[in-house]
Amino acid sequence: MVEFDCLVIGQGLAGTALAWFLRWTGVRVLVVDREERITSSKIAAGLITPITGQRLIKSWRFDDLWPAAESFYRRVEIESGSLFFHQIPMARLFSNSSEAEVFSERVMAADFRRLIREPQPPLDRSSFKSDHGEFEMTTSGQLNVIQYLAASRNYFARDRGYLAADLDPERDLKINEFGIDVPRIGVHARHVIFCQGIDAIRNPWFRAVRFRPAKGEILTVRIPELLEKRVIHSGIWLAHVERDLYRVGSNYEWNQLDNVPTEKTREELVRRLTLFLRLPFEIIDQHAAIRPIHRNQYPVIGLHPDNERLGYFNGLGSKGTLQAPYFANLLTRVLLAHQGDYGRITIDHEVDLNHRAELRGCHPWLN
Ligand SMILES: Cc1cc2nc3c(=O)[nH]c(=O)nc-3n(C[C@H](O)[C@H](O)[C@H](O)COP(=O)(O)OP(=O)(O)OC[C@H]3O[C@@H](n4cnc5c(N)ncnc54)[C@H](O)[C@@H]3O)c2cc1C
């Protein structure tokens, strides 16, 4: 058996960030992923948007999460020798007059004003319709998620810290007093952390964690005449990818939970795009995936209350790019504290796995 301190199951935004932080503290990590073609992370646009929704609300804990995300992606870029994180401005065009009214209230607060300015340069009126006004956000960014995941995977694989495998959380893990054996891949680890995204719904160790997942769809479109590189938000978003290719998203579907793109959503995204884009476009591609969203809407991290060798990191919802680094760092400190290398670490109630009393007693060998 090859020995590791930590086995991370899942190499999406959650597992990848966790693996980096663990490695930076000297923990020997093996990341295992089953390499599905479509996952939530693989189709995500990677946007970090500070102000969102019709009510123009500042994103939850943005002042903590943004600096953590920015410095994390920069460090990974340096270590992996690859560029995938771009701090780019985003323009928000009001869809109606009530959004403009909300804006005039919000803009009174210094905290809000700090994140915005007049669009610079001004919006090109021959490309966009904006009848109710607009503003620009500057503390914002876009992660090329596919490149980031690939660069990380290649980096981990260099010292055998990555393996392609589909592990069954129940049958493949043999837990004993020294740790966890995974005979199928010839590995022994002191901890296993599940970063499975929506697949955690079927994980017997954490089945008491309740989800409210949402399917989302994204179009890739070609807009030959558009020169805009900023992300444009107006009900939906339009984000530049490369050359004349852009991505358009997204919607929330709570009932039909699968990875199958639909004509209905394609038509809806096209309808909403034409509300603010004046230029002709051609649809190149369409993808769908399920966002892992917990009932309480927050990410959840922690060690299992009945067996601290098992950990959990999930529920990144629609903000995995922003949230993953901060909470991966926190979970790393929780793990080190468990091994006695740190003092006690406090996790806020809303994100603390152990705050879920219902989880106690939820494991296959007792039920
Ligand atoms: C349409 C759409 C657009 C989005 N746009 C954005 C955006 O602009 N900005 C943003 O921040 N977020 C966005 N998101 C949300 C973002 O994608 C999620 O927050 C994030 O991907 C969740 O990452 P994760 O690692 O938890 O899950 P996942 O990406 O699902 O990763 C889990 C990984 O674990 C693997 N796995 C699961 N079980 C096993 C097993 N038993 N053995 C081996 N491997 C396993 C899976 O194959 C997968 O690779 C978007 C999501 C969608 C659907």
Layout of secondary structure:
Elements: E1 2-9, H1 13-24, E2 29-33, H2 40-43, E3 47-48, E4 51-52, E5 57-58, H3 62-80, E6 85-86, E7 90-93, H4 97-106, H5 110-113, E8 116-117, E9 134-137, E10 141-143, H6 145-158, E11 162-164, E12 174-176, E13 179-182, E14 187-194, E15 214-222, E16 231-234, E17 236-242, E18 245-249, H7 263-276, E19 282-291, E20 300-304, E21 307-314, H8 320-338
Parallel strand pairs: 1-2, 1-14, 2-11, 7-16, 14-21
Antiparallel strand pairs: 3-10, 4-5, 6-10, 7-9, 8-9, 12-13, 13-14, 15-18, 15-19, 16-17, 17-18, 20-21
Bound molecules: flavin-adenine dinucleotide.
Give a short synopsis of this structure.
This protein has 367 residues and is an alpha+beta fold. The protein contains eight helices and 21 strands. The protein folds into two domains: 2-42 and 146-211 and 296-359, FAD/NAD(P)-binding domain (3-Layer(bba) Sandwich), CATH 3.50.50; 89-139 and 214-291, D-Amino Acid Oxidase, subunit A, domain 2 (D-Amino Acid Oxidase, Chain A, domain 2).
Detailed description of the structure:
It is a single chain. Helix content is 26%, strand content 27%. The two termini are 29 Å apart. It is built from 8 helices and 21 strands. Strand 16 (231-234) and strand 17 form a beta hairpin. It is α+β, with helices and mostly antiparallel strands and 367 residues long. The longest helix is centred in the N-terminal third of the chain and has 19 residues, at 62-80. The strands form 4 sheets. Strands 1, 2, 11, 12, 13, 14, 20 and 21 form an 8-stranded mixed beta sheet that branches. It has an 8-stranded mixed beta sheet with strand order 8-9-7-16-17-18-15-19, with helices on one face. The chain has a 3-stranded antiparallel beta sheet with strand order 3-10-6, covered by helices on one side. It has 2 domains: 2-42 and 146-211 and 296-359, FAD/NAD(P)-binding domain (3-Layer(bba) Sandwich); 89-139 and 214-291, D-Amino Acid Oxidase, Chain A, domain 2, CATH 3.30.9. Helix 1 (13-24) packs across helix 8 (320-338). The radius of gyration is 21 Å and the shape is globular. Residues 361-367 have low confidence and may be disordered. The chain has helices spanning 13-24, 40-43, 62-80, 97-106, 110-113, 145-158, 263-276, 320-338, and strands at 2-9, 29-33, 47-48, 51-52, 57-58, 85-86, 90-93, 116-117, 134-137, 141-143, 162-164, 174-176, 179-182, 187-194, 214-222, 231-234, 236-242, 245-249, 282-291, 300-304, 307-314. Flavin-adenine dinucleotide is lined by residues 9-15, 32-34, 36, 39-41, 43-47, 166-167, 195-199, 216-218, 249-250, 289, 291-292, 314, 316-322.
